[in-house]
Specification:
The complex is a heterodimer of chains A (about 240) and B (about 375). With about 240 residues, chain A is α/β, with parallel strands linked by helices. Chain A is built from seven helices and 15 strands. In chain A, the strands form four sheets. A five-stranded parallel sheet of chain A has the order 2-1-3-4-5, with helices on both faces. In chain A, strands 10-9-8-12-11 form a five-stranded antiparallel sheet, with no helix packed on it. In chain A, a hairpin with a 4-residue loop joins strand 11 and strand 12. In chain A, helix 2 packs across helix 3. The radius of gyration of chain A is 20 Å and the shape is elongated. Chain B is an alpha+beta fold. Classes of the chains: A alpha/beta (about 240), B alpha+beta (about 375).
Amino acid sequence: MKAILVDDERLARQELRNLLKKYSQIEVIDECANAEEAIASIDKHDPDLLFLDIQMPEKNGFDLLEDLDKAPQVIFVTAYDEYAINAFEVNALDYLLKPVDPDRLDDAVNKLLAAPEETTPRKTSETKERLSEDDQIFLKDGEKCWFVTLKDVSMFESEGNYVRVFFDGNKPLILKSLNNLELRLDGRSFFRANRKFIINLKWVEGIENWFNGGLLVKLRNGEKIEISRRQAAKFKDIMSL
Amino acid sequence: MVYRSKSLTFIRRMDNKKLFYWSAQVSGWGLLIFLAGIINYTSGTFDFGLVFYLLSIFTFGILLTHFYRYLIIRLDWLRLSILKLLPRAVIVAIIFGVVFFFFETILIREIILGTTNISLLSVWNSFNIFLNWAGICTLWSLFYFAFTLSENYRKEEIKNLKFEASKTEIELNNLKSQLNPHFMFNSMNSIRALVDENPKQAKNSITQLSNLLRNTLLIGRKKFIPLEEEMNVIKDYLQLEGIRYEERLNVAYNIEPEALQCQIPPLMLQTIVENGIKHGISKLTKGGTLRVVAKLQDDHLNLRVENSGVYDATATSDTSIGLNNTRKRLALIFGNDASFSIYNENNMVIANIILPKQYDNESNSRRR
C-alpha cells in the first residue's frame, strides 16, 4: 500500500515513519507539511492510505479531505482535539492519538490490511479519471463527518453553489456544482436526471411515463425524481440493452 | 388610570430599600401616635385638639428623623465603628429630646393648644418628657443602624463572594490553559521522535517539560512572582514549541534587566505567549516570529508580546474569553492602574500589558 504522511511537524512525521518501518506492506511514498502540499501529492501519487493530522496551518485535515474528489483510506493522527474526537465517535473512523501507541497502530494497520477487497478500491487505470461506485468520498456537515462509498449514495441535488448528497438518511451539503460533479462521476452509475438532480442508476426501482415525454423514476429510498424530456431519450438508451 | 400608572412607575423607581425606609417611618410614627391616641381616648379625652396634637407629632417626628438620616448619610456615619457611632447617637438623642420638648410641650401644648402651663411643670416632669423623646430617638437610631448595617454587611458579603467566585473562575481557567493538553501531547510526541534522532536534546526536552509542569503548578498558586520566574517558564515553553515548529518559530527576547525583579501576576504573560503561538504561528504555513518585550516606563511596567499573524477582533472564540480573563484579572488586582490591549501593527499582532511597577515589599500590600 502506498501511504502519504501529512503533518505540519517534521518530528511528528519522523516518528510515524519510524513506527511504520516494521510494516513491509506499507510504503511511505511522500511526506507533506500542509494541506496544499498534500493535495498536490495525492493528485500525483494517488495513494491508498493517508496518515493525516487534523490541526494544521491554514487548512486542517478535514478541509483537506473535503477538497479531494475521492478520499483514500485515512487514519487520523492527532494529539488532542475534543472536536475531532467527537467526529470520530459518530462515524467510527480510525484514529490514533499522539504520542502514537505502537499497539494501537498495529490494530489500525491490521484492520486495514485485513479489510475485504471492496474497501481498498484500486481499480484499473480507466477509473482514475472518473469516480467509480466503489470510490469513497469524504463528507462533512457541521460536527459530523462521513466516508461514503459512492454506491451508497442515492442521489445528488443541486442547491445554489452547493450539492446535497443523499445517503443512509443523511443529506449533508458539499461545496461543488452539480455540473462539475457530473463530469467527475462514472456515467454508467450516475445519471443527470434534470437541472437539479443526479441519480444513482442502481437505486432506480420503477419508471413511469410523465408529461411532455419525460419520465418519472422512483428510487429505492422512496424519492421520486422527474427526468426531463431532453434526458429521457438518453436514459432509455442507457437502461435498455 | 393614567394617574395610577404614573404612581406605580414612581414606586417602581424607588428602590426596595427606600420603600422599606418610608414604610418603616410611617408605620413607626403611626404606631406611636396610635398608642398615644388610644391612651388618651380611654382616659376620656378625644377631641379635635388631640387629633391635631397627634398629627403634628407624626409630621414633626418624621421630618426630624428624616433630617437625622440625611445627616447620617451626608456625614458618612455608616462607615464608623460602633464605638465612634455610639457617642454620636447619644448626642443626637439629647438634641432630639430637647428639640422635641420645645416643639411638643412648649409650641404645641402650651402655645397653640394651651393644655399645658409650662410654669406648672416641675423640673422632674420636664426632664421625664425630655427623656421620653430622647428614648424614642434612641429607639429610632437602633432600628435604623441595625437595619442599614446588616444590609451593608450583607452587601459586603456578596461583594466578597463575587470577588472570590471570579478569582476561582480565573484560577480554574488558568489551570485549564496551563495544562493545555494539545501542547502536552504534541510535545511528548515530538520528544518521542527525538529519542532516536537526537537523544541529548530529547533528554533536555524532558527536563524542560518537567520544569514547565512543575513551575506552572507551583507559581499558579501565588499572587505575585518576579518577572524573572515568569520568563523562565516562558523560555522553557518556547523552547519546547521550538522543537515542534522548528524553523517555523523564531523567538526573540527584549527584556530590560531592571524589569526582571518586578512583581507580576503569575502566568499572565505566559498565557499571552501561548495565544501568540496558538493563534499566530501555528496558523502560518511558513511560521513567523514571536518577540517578548519587557520595559520600565516611569512607574509602570510594560509587557508586550509581538507575533506574526492577524488578530481578528470580531472572532468570538475561546481567545476572546481568554483575553477577557486577562482583563478581568488585571482589574481585580490593580483596579484602574493596569490595562491590556491587543491590536495589529505591520503584519504583527501586538498584545500589551501595562501594570504598576512594584517590587517584592510593595506587592505585599496588595495581597489580600
